[in-house]
Amino acid sequence: MPAMASLGNSASAGPRSSAGSSPATTPAGAPLRTVFVYFPNGAHQEHWFGQSDPSGLRLGQTLQPMRHLQDSIQMIGGLDHENAEAGPDGPGDHARANATFLTGVRAKKTSGADIRLGRSIDQELADAVGDQTRFKSLELSCDAVRKSGECDSGYSCAYQYNLAWRSETQPMAPETNPRALYERLFGIETPVTADESFRLAKQDRKNLLDFVLADAKDVRRRLGGSDSRKLDEYLSSVRDIEISLAKAEQFPKPERPDMPIPAGVPDLYDRHIDLMFDLLAIALQSDATRVATMMLAADGSNRSFPQIGLPEGHHYLTHQSAEEMREKVALIDRFYVQRFTRFLDKLAATTDSDGSSVLHNSIIVYGGGIGDGNRHNHDNLPILVAGHGGGKLKPGRFVDAGSQPMSNLYVGLADKVGVSGIESFGDSDDVFDDV
User: Fold this and answer.
1) What is the CA radius of gyration of the chain?
2) Which of 298, 301, 324, 431 has its CA 20 to 30 Å from the CA of residue 120?
3) 185-211 average pLDDT score
């Protein structure tokens, strides 16, 4: 394991339950983190899964950048999302891939305001463990944020650009700007002292919430039934923010990390991903949250990659049959793996409160909602699980799940995190806990 280094303030800050007595802690009492990372458009299957080797791990060419971490990762084959298949709904595989990935639920096909999906597993975990940290969860993305309009064959953009869903009608919009994420985690940099900046920022948010609630009471008197229900959902979100603000006051002011304050969204895509991963690593190490999602790009992304010599769009390349084009898809898959590996290296090199690494005390699911980008299939998804889960996982191997809902994995991981009561989720029909 690499030499360990600190990324920020100690994970022991803030309210903490006794060792082993609450969910999302290791037996030694260190934080146990759960992260879900999404990459788009499936994977070049042969280069992803590779061939069996003596280690029991099947890392194809795409995954070679993480070979040095083979003792901390496991590949899982045979996980499916049947509710992302076309069925009677026809085209729209990219929207369904994103929508189903963390919910296991079939999205209602609509481009209007009547979206309907289901709660995502990260939010189920956040509700169970979020009282132990300043933030119940963090939702991050390196792509656009779109909450309305049509994006894929009659599906709302809300499905395609959001991984996390707090309810079946309310997606959790992700943060995409590294500067905004930094300020959310550590306060706004102003000429006043850091303590005063943090206090003023909280007061500004409280004043805004008071104004919104007062205005909503007046609006309610003029609304009909369905609009009134929408307002109730909105006010429920406002109340969650109120609770979060009150809870934040129980924790010490966060220590600013030893890094330059981001100026905003970088021009270079790889730098954007790295910055978001760096801030997420600090948030995990400092115990600002124990649950997070990161969408590297929405499914269907047609981004080009000139930094690795690929001027063609990603989505375009996935639908070309020539082997030369397929090899280019594999290079894009590898690009994403390299960025993810850099994130894992940071966690592996960061000392946790129990003396192990943050990676050791994490469960990180990396994958996508499409198997092969050309076929638009949603079975045998490209899935990795990184980390040791504080000793609860069995990394360093390939696991064949046969063919079963990915939701089964989520039920199994909830138990590993110590969250009881999730006996089924999404379209689960069993518990897959061989991880």
Assistant:
1) 21
2) 301
3) 61
**Residue-level pLDDT at 80:** 98
Separation CA 121–CA 409 (nearest Å): 10
The rounded distance, in Å, linking the Cα atoms of 326 and 146 is 29
Q: Of 13-22, 114-123, 308-317, give the lowest mean pLDDT range.
A: 13-22
Question: What pTM was estimated for this model as a whole?
Answer: 0.86
**Taking 70 as the threshold, does the pLDDT of residue 212 lie above it?**
no
Q: What are the backbone angles phi and psi of residue 129, rounded to the nearest 5°?
A: -120, -5
Q: What are 58-83's pLDDT values in tens digits?
A: 889 999 999 999 999 999 999 999 99
Question: Whole-angstrom Cα distance, residue 168 to residue 147?
Answer: 14
Output the furthest CA–CA distance in the chain (Å, rounded).
69
Mean pLDDT score, 90-106? 98
The confidence score (pLDDT) of residue 89 equals 95
DSSP code at position 154:
T
Residue 279 φ/ψ region, left for φ over 0, alpha for ψ in the -120 to 50 degree band, beta for the rest: alpha
Q: How many residues does the chain have?
A: 435
- 141, 147, 152, 154 alpha-carbon torsion, rounded to 10°: 160
Tell me how many degrees the CA angle 307-311-314 measures, rounded to the nearest 5: 95
pLDDT of residue 202: 59
The CA distances from residue 48 to 70, 303, 378, in Å, are 14, 20, 15
Q: What is the pLDDT of residues 109-135, one digit of tens each?
A: 999 999 999 999 999 999 999 999 999
Q: What's the one-letter identity of residue 354?
A: D
Domains of the chain, residue spans: 33-183+262-417, 188-253
Neighbouring C-beta atoms of residue 222, cutoff 10 Å = 8
Instruction: Give the strand pairing for 33-38 and 362-367.
Output: parallel
CATH for 33-183+262-417, among 3.40.50.300, 3.40.720.10, 3.40.190.10, 3.40.50.2300?
3.40.720.10
Cα separation, 404 vs 77, in Å, equals: 10
Cβ(161)–Cβ(143) below 8 Å: yes
Taking CA atoms, 97 is separated from 168, 286, 372, in Å, by 16, 32, 12
Q: With H, G, I as helix, E, B as strand and everything else as coil, classify residue 170.
A: strand
* Closest C-alpha to 383, from 123, 24, 72, 36: 36
H or E stretch at 271: helix 269-285
Residue 422 dihedral angles phi and psi, to the nearest 5°:
-95, 85
